[in-house]
Design goal:
Helices cover 50% and strands 5% of the residues. The chain is built from 28 helices and 11 strands. The strands form 3 sheets. The protein has a 7-stranded mixed beta sheet with strand order 2-1-7-9-8-11-10. Strands 3-6 form a two-stranded antiparallel ribbon. A hairpin with a 2-residue loop joins strand 8 and strand 9.
């Protein structure tokens, strides 16, 4: 008797339903963290941070191009890519759930209903949902691959005796290999596939015809990496890692040895040398603490909105325990349904949880164990729940399978003609995450990162050099420049990246006269005047050899660095890092033609000892070289010591704040879900308070002072998480206050 055809139509409808949910809660623009980087690189075919994620860049760029006739913004198109890939994963896991439930619920509507409930629970788990309505990372594509491989493996298990069934395994292998060029998360089903094959027909993968067909698939899949050196050689504006190669042979060796040999720049990119994470044997936190961190994230998945705290919380605990139990019941259902399929699911789940926790080797969680000595250096700079998105999706589906199994047990115990329909309301439990996560998972109406980046870029004068402190206060600026074309004249310098070999060279080349982009900002008319001509030189005159020779140096005597009108002295014994020395060189070589700004008065500006010459222009701080003992230049006012005593260019700051800045989501968002970026609205709160103070000192009028104070209160509410919790700790790679 032939096996019934899988319910592909129902799977497609379930996937469309998940997609519709993600669209309703979709982010309308960019967001913090890596969202801006990936949207921008997909748009311009650039190269994001190592290992470069070429499959994502190519697919997201093609997807965006196909959707361009709809008139949607680039950001919305790329965010829809995350929604579509995640919804596709739900459709494939619906088929897996249906296969498990079919023996107990039959081939009719009951198995479809049970599998749909399972998919709903997985698709609305907090992290799954939160990662599916904005393209923050590349993981939804990998989750789609994991789900597709899971269905191919389960389908092969059903049909392994049929001639040609090994094609299903070959497809699974190809997806994992090509998926590795998106992210290594894509290869995580490999141990589970191995277990399934071992329990079913282990000789299948040892036959010559399988191996002969598998080898070219591996070669073709890995060949996507060739995009990196080819595109890097064309010098796109975002070209992280600079993974160029002198020859095709060197690139091939690097790719097919996983960076063990061949082209050094590409090899360093593939192995993520830039990040220099310690080996897994050198634990960055006790394994027990890392497991506790995973439980913390698991606790968020099913009822995030019941408590504002990030810690495992008593209001959420009953739901966490309920879904833990239902997931275990789902595994029991798989055991009863088919033992090799159970082996696949258990192995995959262990790989996505215990295996991943061990391999990732995180520091203490961002909000976990706050009393640990070492402060931010011993903690992750943000919550890392997104690394476990595949495990939360799979566990949600297993929870739904367990729920459907419980439904069958209850219905079977009744002696009633319509017992299945009568007991079907038990499936409503699968709706708990949908209801209890909505407010926290939704990104609808969130313009915070977009408007903050716009405000910061508009704060600086034409052709400015703007130093930022790290990824999170840089990527939104890249998005604004490369996707929306805002202030492309500004040279954004990521202080941390100056440590690398490739980045300072790229900055010099991008600011050469033939590549310098013009100043276009009609919004700034009456605030900043455009110069007669763009700068005639790049940001630095250093050669490649001179840059390569710079390393961290401990000073054996006082060193004075001269600038126009001032000199900065660095004491003997001080260590000047490579990035600090390069920043000083950039400032020295640029300051005659380019205004110098910093994204914050702390961070790099403080490290360089240039705080005394800082003058705020709204959000940004200008390096204004002047005699500090003389009277301040016209328009510059100093606040009172109680508010930091910072200097403000009051005319430009007032005009920027009142006529240029945008504040959507920054002073009116009900819930700020990402607590590690709460310093952004807190930054605005501090700015409004300082502006009110300086306006009072400068006698700008009670009406102006009052407005700033009212705004400060609004920002404070958002900075408290939307009138919940306490202001967020400043993350290590986000702008400080």
């Amino acid at each position: 008797m032939d096996e019934p055809r899988p319910p592909y139509r129902a799977a497609a409808l379930v996937g469309l339903a998940a997609f519709a949910l993600y669209v309703v809660t979709l982010a309308p623009t960019t967001a913090f963290w890596d969202t801006s980087e990936y949207i921008a690189t997909a748009h311009i075919l650039g190269i994001p941070h190592p290992p470069g994620n070429p499959l994502f860049v190519l697919l997201a760029h093609s997807w965006s191009w196909l959707l361009s006739p709809l008139g949607l913004s680039v950001a919305v198109r790329i965010n829809l890519f995350a929604a579509a890939t995640s919804a596709g994963a739900s459709a494939f896991l619906f088929l897996v759930a249906h296969r498990i439930l079919r023996p107990v619920l039959g081939d009719g509507w009951r198995a479809v209903a049970g599998a749909a409930a399972a998919t709903l629970a997985g698709a609305t788990a907090y992290t799954v949902w939160n990662q599916s309505n904005v393209n923050e990372k590349v993981y939804t594509l990998s989750v789609l691959i994991i789900a597709a491989v899971s269905w191919l493996a389960v389908r092969w298990r059903e049909r392994w005796r049929e001639p040609g069934s090994e094609r299903l395994l070959l497809w699974a292998l190809f997806l994992m290999v090509i998926g590795s060029t998106n992210h290594l998360m894509s290869v995580l089903p490999l141990p589970a596939v191995g277990v399934l094959v071992l329990l079913t027909a282990p000789l299948t993968v040892l036959r010559a015809r399988f191996l002969v067909r598998a080898l070219p698939l591996v070669i073709v899949g890995l060949s996507v990496y060739f995009f990196l050196p080819v595109r890097a050689a064309q010098h796109p504006v975002i070209n992280e890692g600079g993974a160029t190669c002198d020859s095709f042979t060197g690139a091939a060796v690097a790719i097919y040895t996983n960076g063990k040999a061949g082209c050094r720049a590409l090899a360093d990119n593939l192995t993520r040398k830039q990040y220099q994470k310690p080996p897994v044997t050198n634990r960055q936190a006790p394994f027990a603490a890392q497991l506790k961190n995973y439980w913390q994230y698991f606790d968020w998945q099913w009822s995030r909105g019941l408590a504002a705290t990030e810690q495992p919380s008593s209001p959420r605990t009953p739901f966490s325990l309920l879904f833990l139990a239902l997931g275990l019941l789902g595994l029991w259902a798989a055991w009863r349904s088919d033992r090799p399929t159970f082996g696949y699911l258990v192995t995959l789940m262990l790989t996505l949880t215990l295996g991943l926790v061990y391999y990732l080797n995180f520091k203490y969680g961002y909000s976990l164990a706050p009393g640990i000595p070492g402060g931010s250096s011993t903690h992750e700079v943000r919550e890392r729940d997104y690394f476990f998105v595949a495990s939360f999706l799979l566990w949600g589906v297993l929870s739904g399978v367990g729920l459907a199994w419980a439904w069958a047990a209850v219905a079977s115990a009744l002696d009633h003609a319509r017992r299945w329909a009568f007991t079907a309301p038990v499936l409503v439990v699968a709706c708990f995450p949908l209801v209890l996560n909505w407010n926290w998972a939704s990104r609808a109406g969130d313009y915070a990162a977009h408007d903050w980046a716009y405000d910061l870029l508009m704060s600086v004068e034409p052709y400015a050099v703007l130093f930022t402190n790290g990824d999170n206060d840089t990527f939104p600026l890249w998005y604004m420049q490369e996707v929306e074309g805002v202030r492309q004249d500004v040279t954004v310098v990521v202080g941390q990246y100056l440590q690398t070999e490739w980045y300072p060279k790229q900055l010099r080349n991008l600011t050469s006269p033939d590549r310098q982009r013009p100043f276009r900002a009609p919004e700034l008319e009456g605030i900043y005047a455009a110069p007669a001509a763009p700068p005639g030189d790049a940001v630095t005159t250093l050669t490649d050899e001179q840059m390569d020779a710079i390393g961290a140096a401990r000073l054996n005597q006082d060193v004075t660095v001269p600038f126009p009108g001032i000199a900065v002295t660095y004491p003997s014994g001080m260590v000047l890092s490579r990035d600090a020395q390069l920043a000083l060189a950039f400032i020295h070589d640029s300051i005659d033609e380019r205004p110098i700004y910093f994204a914050a008065s702390g961070g790099l500006m403080s490290d360089l000892g240039m705080d005394p010459w800082g003058v705020r222009h709204g959000l940004a701080v200008k390096l204004q070289l002047r005699d500090l003992k003389a009277d301040q230049p016209e328009g510059v006012s100093q606040g009172s010591p109680a508010y930091g005593g910072e200097f403000f260019d009051m005319p430009s700051s007032l005009k920027l704040y009142q006529d240029v800045y945008r504040f959507r989501s920054l002073r009116d968002r009900a819930i700020w879900a990402d607590r590690s970026t709460l310093n952004i609205p807190w930054y605005y709160y501090v700015l409004a308070m300082q502006m009110s103070d300086v306006a009072r000192v400068a006698d700008a009028g009670t009406e102006v002072v009052s407005r700033f104070q009212q705004d400060a209160l609004a920002f404070q509410v958002v900075a408290n998480g939307g009138s919940r919790g306490a202001p967020g700790e400043v993350a290590g790679d986000t702008p400080g206050t």
